[in-house]
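Protein in question filed below.

…
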Amino acid sequence: MVFHLLLALLLIVLISFVYIDSRRPPNFPPGPKWLPVIGNLYAVQKRLAKMKFLHLVFTELAEKYGPVVGLRLGLFRVIIVSDYDSIRQVLTKDEFVGRPQGFIFRLRSFGKRHGLVFTDGPVWMEQRRFCLKYLRETGMGKPRMDHLIGIEAAEVVQALRIKMQTHGFVSVRNFFDVAVLNVLWTMVAGQRFHIEDQRLSKLLNLLHQLFRLVDTSGGVLNQLPMLRHVAPEKSGYRQFKSILDQIHAFLKESVDEHRENLSSNMYEANDLMSAYIRQIESNNETSKSTANPSEFSEEQLLVILLDLFMAGSETTSTTLDFIILYLVRFPECQKRAHDQLFSVTGFNREPTLKDRPSLCYIDAFISEVQRHGNNVPLGVSHRAVEDTNLNGFTIPKDSVVFTNLYRMNMDKHFWGDPHEFRPERFLNSSGQLSNHERFMPFGLGPRRCLGESLARGTLFVFVASILNNFVITLPTDQEPPTLTGVDGITLTIQPFKAVFTLHH
C-alpha cells in the first residue's frame, strides 16, 4: 500500500515537472514547442547537422515565426532577434547589457565571472575602463597606432615575398595571425612575436581549434553541462579544457615574466599588462588595510589577456582571410582597388591611415566582405539582466539573446540584392564612403567592441599594403575557392592557396 502511494506521488511529481518544464512563459516570443530538460536542443542540433551553420538554423526559425523567436536550449531560455529594429534595441538598451552565464563561459575564466567579453555589472565596467585607458595611453586611436600597424604590415609584405620565393604560393588561412596579434600585443604586453614563432603558432592553432569546438551559443556542453561527466570525450569537454589549460599556461608565463622584469626595474609600466600588475600590487596593499578583496587579481588579468588574445588574433585575422578570398574571386574589384592605390601612392611608397580618405574603395571593399562574408554572423550573445519587453513580448530575466546579424545583412528589403557582392553599395554618388546604420560589424551601444578603431585601422592598412605590393591570383591548377566558410564562434574560410605577384 505504502509502495503504491509513493509510486503515485512520484508519478504526480514527474507529470507536474514535465508540464511545468515544457510550458512557455506568459507572453514569451513565438517559437517551436520544447521538451522537458533539453528544450529545443535536439531539434536545433538536428537542423544544424543538415544546414551546417547555426545562423542558418536561426534564420529558418525567423522565417517561420517572425523577427523575434523564443525557444529553449537545454538550461537556457533563448531569444533570437533577426530584424534591424529588434537588434538595435538589444544592443542599446540597458536591460540587455548582460552576458550569458553558462558553463563554457565560466570554464574559460576559472569557474568565475572574469574578463571583458563574458561579464557584466560594475566589475566589468571598472575593468573595461581600466583597460581602455591604458590601451589608449599605449597608442590605440593615436598616431602611434598607425606606426605599429605599419610595422606589422611591412612584416606581412616581407613574409609574403619570402613565401612566394620559397614555395611559389601562399596558404592563406591563418597566415595573418601573428602579425595581427602583434599590433595589439605591443600595446598589451610591450612585446611582439616573430612572424615564424613556432610556439606562438602552435598556441594560435589551439585557439583556432577552440573556436571550432563550439559555436556562438557555447555548444551542447554549455546547454547541458552534465555531459562533461557522462561523456567527457564525446562532448568536447576534455579537449576544450586541455586547450584552455595550455593557453592559460602561456599567458601566465608572460605575466610572471612581466612581474619579474618590473620587480627588477628593467622597464617602466608602459603597457597594459605592466600597469595591471602594478594595480594588483597597489590594491592588495589597500585590501589588507580595509579587509575588502580587490577585483584586480592575477586570475582576472589572465582572463582579460585571453579575451584580448582572442579578439586580437581570431576575428581580425579571419576577416583578412576572407578579404584575400574575395580579392581572388572578384578580380575586377581588385583591379579597381589597384587603380585607386596607384593614383594615391604610385606604388612607390607604402599607404598609411592618413591615405584612408583617398582610398574609399578599399574601405568599401572591406565593409562589403564583412557584410557578404558574415564571418561573425551572430555577434556575441547578450543576456537580459531583468524582466523586460521587446516588440510587445515579455523577455524573462536571464534569457540569452542572439542577434542574427546574418539575416540583417541579407535583408533584401533594405539591401536590394544582398546576395550580390557589390562594394559600391558602401559608396555615395561622389565615390566617398557611405556608412549604413544597418551595418554594424563591431556592434552598438555599451558592449560595442572596445578595439574597433584598432581593428578598422589594421584591416585597412594591411589590405592597402598588400594590394600596394601585389596582384593576387589563384594557382593555375586550383579551382576557385568556395565563399562558404566553416562554422564556429566565428566563421573561417576553407583552406586555399593564392599567388602574390609583385607589381612591375
Q: What stands out?
A: The mean pLDDT is 92. The radius of gyration is 24 Å.
